[in-house]
Please model this.
Amino acid sequence: MVLRKPGPNDKLAYFTRRTFGGNCSVIVWKFEGEDNANIQYTCPHCKNAGEKQQLFEREKKRMEIKGKKKAVDAFTFTCDKCGKEISLEKWVKGRGKKK
Model:
């Protein structure tokens, strides 16, 4: 499957670029007026590189943040090769800053 990359005149409803550890990364973008998100990733579990489209929905996930379990909104998809889940939690301004 070939994903349509965003161009200079495209309006995006959502875009994120995240990295996990060394060379594992995820790029997700969603065009305005579309329901599907475009995902380009390198799996942190099996190091497989892949592309996919999936309905963009966030769900509540229980995650441990700084030693405390909290419910956070996360966009989750599975790796096509190993089948493990990859979760991207909703970014909240100021959560990762040191005091």
Q: What stands out?
A: The chain is about 0% helix and 55% strand. The longest strand covers residues 68-78.
